Amino acid sequence: MKVRSFLVGLVGGVVGTVLVFVVLFLLGFADVTRDDGATPTPTRTTTSVVQDEDGFWAARIYEQSRRGVVMVVSTFSAGEDTFNPFGQAQESQGLGSGFVISEDGYILTNAHVVEDQGQRASRVDVVFKDDDGTSERVDAELVGLDLESDVAVLKVDPENVEGGLTPLPLGDSEEVAVGEPVVAIGNPLGFDFSVTTGVVSAVDRSLESPAGPGYIIPNGIQTDAAINQGNSGGPLINSAGEVIGINEQIVSQSGGNQGLGFAVPINTAKRSFEQIREFGEVRYAWIGIQGQTITSDMSQAFDLPVESGVLVASVVPDSPAAKAGIRGGTREESVQGQIFVVGGDVITEVDGKSVPSMEELIGIIDQYDPGDKVELTIVRDGKTQTVDVTLEQRPSGM
């Protein structure tokens, strides 16, 4: 289980090899026979059609989409165990979800499904569920991942998938509306290929990124569709059958679903996918400043001209911000034991979009490509003005 403050990552808990075998046995990945030696016939439960006044059928969406959803089984090698007399490498596994997006075998999931505390999975398998209810397990290649947006790209050989591939159509997350019906398909708590229904509860949420403090995933989608650990990487699908997000985390004090689920917007995932496929990594834009989020208390303490925005503390030499003439702070001030660098420019907007925090500024810039030009609205010496900045590729390690 991954816990980030009260945010719970939805990948299934990492388990030992013995427990994993039990889980796989129960889920049908190991061979199972009856006492008489015959293979049991899988049973299917009858799904009732759920329809609302907008003509949304959860059963229809599930039926046309389930073949494109997979279970992701990630294996992590911990190296040789010095206490093991045979010196064998120890392995652990985690369970998540994913979905097919192309006929040539590309699959999207969350980065935290295939990466654990800086370690990438040494092996990734995906499990398809056939029309007759049986499971089909296939080796997958980890093409690349974008930890900042929590997106990973897998690939399978279509020829290895006997039942064929069913790519899911991708929607436009900028068109998502609060209140529209959605379904989530995945493998919550190991219950494979489950579907839950709900609505979009909110949009434009800032999600905590697994890349670490100071990084956010902007434009997140909030839903009350029940999602739990194991749903990580699975699709959030609208009434048109289009994927609008990748289920990524929940807010919970108990560790279970409390009606607060969040998804990475599919437009963000598309960008990550395209760059990973082309470059093997995601190349983020960079402005080159260090800044501090302005609060109302901070504004009053330093007599700032605005109550929200980003106070530029310093500017990296020869960075895009430096080339555009952005000014950093000139002196240090202390408020309640906290040091602030004041006297610099205040950034309030990027291309007309308000910037309420440093994290939001990073998230907004992340949506651009190196070489793009943006217009910053800044306040300098009490006067508002605009400055054009040509973004560059973020240096490694920043």
Number of helices: 7
The share of residues in helices is: 10-25%
Q: What's the β-strand tally? A: 27
Largest sheet: 6 strands, antiparallel, barrel
CATH architecture of the largest domain: Beta Barrel
Main structural class: mainly beta
As a percent range, the share of strand residues is: 35-45%
Sheet with most strands: strand arrangement: 12-13-14-17-16-15
Radius of gyration: 24 Å
Question: What coarse outline follows from CA principal-axis ratios?
Answer: elongated
Q: What's this entry about, in short?
A:
This protein has about 400 residues and is mainly beta. It is built from 7 helices and 27 strands. The chain folds into 2 domains: about 1-280, Thrombin, subunit H; about 285-395, Pdz3 Domain (Roll), CATH 2.30.42.10.
Mind explaining what this structure looks like?
This protein is mainly beta and 398 residues long. It folds into two domains: 1-282, Thrombin, subunit H (Beta Barrel), CATH 2.40.10.120; 285-393, PDZ domain (Pdz3 Domain, Roll), CATH 2.30.42.10. It contains seven helices and 27 strands. The chain has helices spanning 17-27, 58-65, 111-114, 266-279, 296-301, 320-323, 358-366; strands at residues 3-4, 7-9, 15-16, 69-80, 89-100, 106-109, 115-116, 119-120, 123-129, 135-146, 151-155, 181-186, 194-208, 216-223, 235-238, 243-251, 261-265, 285-286, 289-293, 310-315, 331-335, 338-342, 346-350, 353-354, 373-380, 383-390, 392-393. The strands form six sheets. The chain has a six-stranded antiparallel β-barrel with strand order 12-13-14-17-16-15. A six-stranded antiparallel β-barrel has the order 4-5-6-11-10-9. A hairpin with a 2-residue loop joins strand 23 and strand 24 (353-354). It is elongated. The relative contact order is 0.12. Residues 1-8 and 14-50 have low confidence and may be disordered.
